[in-house]
């Protein structure tokens, strides 16, 4: 079988075409400057004061757990450069760089207190209070991944950043809680306030929730009949786990829900995707052991009846599916999901529940300035520029005309890196901070090293008597393995730093990993093809004194008579 002929010109053409397409997309987006990090640009700071739902001081463990969950929301989908810290015994501060679209969405997601609970639907427009049958609805359902699904109501997947509040009538009823609250807890004595509060903040048994759902007390049925969904921006409804809840969904449909049966903290994992042999997105849930048992009991209690259970986020219904059988283990919520709505629902289920309450009046937002002076960025950029100039000067003095390969590799690597930063900044909220600039500067040396390895391998082969055209191919095999091993070590170091280091170092680790990947692409798609292309020119393969491939440069000035030197016929 004939050996495939290398075509360096075509490889170079494909590389520059890819670069042109990338920058064409950037031009279409109209973004030519990357988002800078907190240290260089500043951003938005959100201060959240926690409250213990059971009274007393805020447990340190709960505060740290809430910090971890919020950090996952801020930095879980990209290198946003956000910082989440605790202050004192009850304050979490979130700093988000920039003011772009992604940053605004992140800020809104952080501001959501994200109290996630599962309740049964007692009353809805499709299901009158106390009715045993749900009305006809759309295609939302909850199903066991192993098979089986029952149609139910229309999906509640799309949800906005505003929290739907309780109606004015509901608020008045809440204010008169001690006098006319229709819930069973209204009859508790004043001397047992602490026990009452503890009971109200606890989920109820599935049997009790089912009993309420199928036999709605008249007081709650009357309250539901007069309930209207409030306008966005109003005071949020008070979501107490052990009490029924009057609320709405994003479509303005009112619901009367039973006391909560599962807290969102029982969710172990939530993800979204398109299962095999299906065409629509689904959201997959996995519960912890305790939550799994309760979830199985809940779906078993309503299986095949058309009755619904609601997933409630910050007192708002985001999904209200039905079940056709008892489901133990993982479950899937399906409906008319798009990729965006499925991802949003999965993220809220996965990162939605906080172990503490953050009342709205304890959340403050302010604009903050950069933590470093503007000349720090200028100094970092000058350092990178000076480093690149020194590399170019060294390459010209040592490699002469072959320095074209080094300069070309640095230029293309710089263009690819800058383009990728712009794209990631626009699509994933990646920001460039001073540690990130340092990671980019380190990448200059990585790109130059790749050429040096190839060139020195070529010189070794040419000293053994091979021509330049042959030496390019023989040296490439050994240089390729060396560079891949070196880049693998660099990428592994960057990966370890990114996973285990603090947020302040993540920017450096990310940029180091990015430049390492780009170095591999440039080495394969530019350094080798360009060197092979130059080897076909007489100026180089005949050993011109300025080519960098003459006898003195490769160390064969004193070679024995008859030794094949530069410009061999092979």
What does this structure look like?
- This protein is α+β, with helices and mostly antiparallel strands.
- It has three domains: 8-30 and 372-554, Multidrug efflux transporter AcrB transmembrane domain (Multidrug efflux transporter AcrB transmembrane fold); 34-113 and 354-370, Alpha-Beta Plaits, CATH 3.30.70.3400; 114-178 and 198-353, 2-Layer Sandwich (Gyrase A, domain 2), CATH 3.30.1360.
- It contains 17 helices and 14 strands.
- It has helices at 8-29, 60-75, 101-111, 168-175, 177-180, 193-200, 206-214, 218-225, 289-302, 339-351, 374-399, 403-427, 434-463, 468-500, 503-535, 538-541, 551-554, and strands at 43-49, 83-87, 91-97, 116-123, 141-143, 245-248, 254-257, 262-263, 267-273, 282-287, 309-313, 316-319, 331-334, 363-368.
- The strands form three sheets. Strands 4, 6, 7, 8, 11 and 12 form a six-stranded antiparallel β-sheet that branches. It has a four-stranded antiparallel β-sheet with strand order 2-3-1-14, covered by helices on one side.
- A hairpin with a 2-residue loop joins strand 11 and strand 12 (316-319).
- Helix 14 (468-500) runs antiparallel to helix 15.
- The protein is elongated.
- It starts with 7 loop residues before the first helix and ends in a 16-residue tail after the last helix.
- The model is unreliable at 133-192 and 559-570 (pLDDT under 50).
- Residues 64-122 form the Protein translocase subunit SecDF P1 domain.
- The chain crosses the membrane at residues 379-399, 404-424, 436-455, 476-501, 507-526.
- Keywords: Cell membrane, Membrane, Protein transport, Translocation, Transmembrane, Transmembrane helix, Transport.
- Part of the Sec protein translocase complex. Interacts with the SecYEG preprotein conducting channel. SecDF uses the proton motive force (PMF) to complete protein translocation after the ATP-dependent function of SecA.
- Residues 181-192 have a biased composition (Low complexity).
């Amino acid at each position: 079988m004939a050996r495939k002929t290398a075509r360096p010109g075509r490889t170079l053409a494909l590389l520059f075409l890819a670069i042109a397409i990338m920058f064409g997309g950037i031009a279409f987006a109209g973004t030519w400057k990357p988002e800078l990090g907190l240290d260089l640009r500043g951003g938005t700071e959100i201060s959240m004061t926690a409250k213990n739902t059971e009274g007393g001081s805020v447990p340190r463990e709960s505060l740290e757990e809430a910090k971890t969950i919020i950090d996952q929301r801020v930095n879980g989908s990209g290198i946003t450069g956000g910082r989440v810290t605790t202050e004192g015994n009850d304050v979490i501060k979130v700093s988000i760089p920039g003011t772009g679209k992604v940053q605004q969405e992140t800020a809104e997601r952080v501001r959501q207190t994200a109290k996630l609970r599962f309740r049964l639907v007692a009353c809805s427009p499709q299901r009158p209070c106390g009715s045993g049958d749900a009305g006809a609805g759309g295609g939302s359902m909850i199903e066991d991944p192993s098979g089986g699904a029952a149609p139910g109501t229309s999906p509640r997947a799309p949800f906005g950043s505003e929290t739907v509040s309780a109606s004015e009538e509901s608020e008045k009823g809440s204010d008169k809680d001690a006098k006319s609250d229709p819930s069973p807890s209204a009859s508790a004595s004043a001397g047992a306030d602490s026990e009452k509060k503890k009971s109200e903040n606890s989920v109820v048994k599935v049997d009790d929730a089912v009993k309420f759902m199928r036999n709605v007390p008249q007081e709650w049925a009357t309250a539901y009949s007069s309930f209207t969904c409030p306008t966005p921006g109003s005071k949020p409804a008070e979501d107490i786990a052990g009490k029924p809840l009057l609320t709405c969904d994003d479509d303005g449909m009112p619901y009367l829900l039973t006391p909560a049966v599962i807290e969102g903290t029982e969710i172990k994992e939530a993800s979204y995707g398109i299962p095999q042999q299906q065409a629509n997105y689904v959201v997959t849930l996995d519960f912890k052991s305790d939550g799994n048992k309760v979830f199985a009991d809940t779906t078993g209690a309503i299986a095949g009846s058309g009755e619904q259970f609601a997933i409630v986020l910050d007192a708002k219904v985001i999904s209200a599916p039905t079940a056709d059988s008892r489901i133990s283990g993982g479950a899937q919520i399906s409906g008319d999901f798009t990729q965006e709505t499925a991802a949003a629902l999965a993220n809220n289920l996965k990162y939605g529940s906080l172990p503490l309450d953050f009342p709205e009046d304890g959340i403050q937002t302010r604009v903050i300035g950069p933590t470093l002076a503007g000349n720090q960025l200028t100094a970092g950029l000058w350092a990178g520029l000076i480093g690149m100039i020194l590399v170019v000067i060294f390459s010209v003095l040592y490699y002469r005309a072959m320095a074209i390969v080094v300069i070309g590799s640095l230029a293309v690597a710089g263009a690819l890196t800058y383009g990728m930063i712009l794209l990631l900044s626009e699509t994933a909220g990646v920001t460039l901070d001073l540690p990130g600039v340092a990671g980019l500067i380190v990448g200059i040396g990585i790109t130059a090293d790749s050429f040096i390895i190839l060139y020195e391998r070529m010189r070794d082969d040419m000293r053994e008597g091979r021509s330049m055209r042959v030496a390019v191919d023989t040296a490439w095999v050994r240089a390729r393995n060396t560079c891949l091993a070196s880049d693998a070590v660099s990428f592994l170091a960057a990966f370890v730093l990114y996973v285990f280091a603090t947020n302040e170092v993540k920017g450096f680790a990310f940029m180091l990993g990015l430049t390492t990947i780009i170095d591999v692409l440039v080495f394969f798609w530019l350094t080798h093809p360009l060197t092979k292309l130059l080897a076909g020119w007489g100026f180089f393969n005949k050993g011109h004194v300025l080519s960098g491939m003459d006898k003195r440069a490769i160390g064969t000035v004193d070679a024995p008579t008859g030794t094949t030197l530069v410009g061999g016929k092979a």
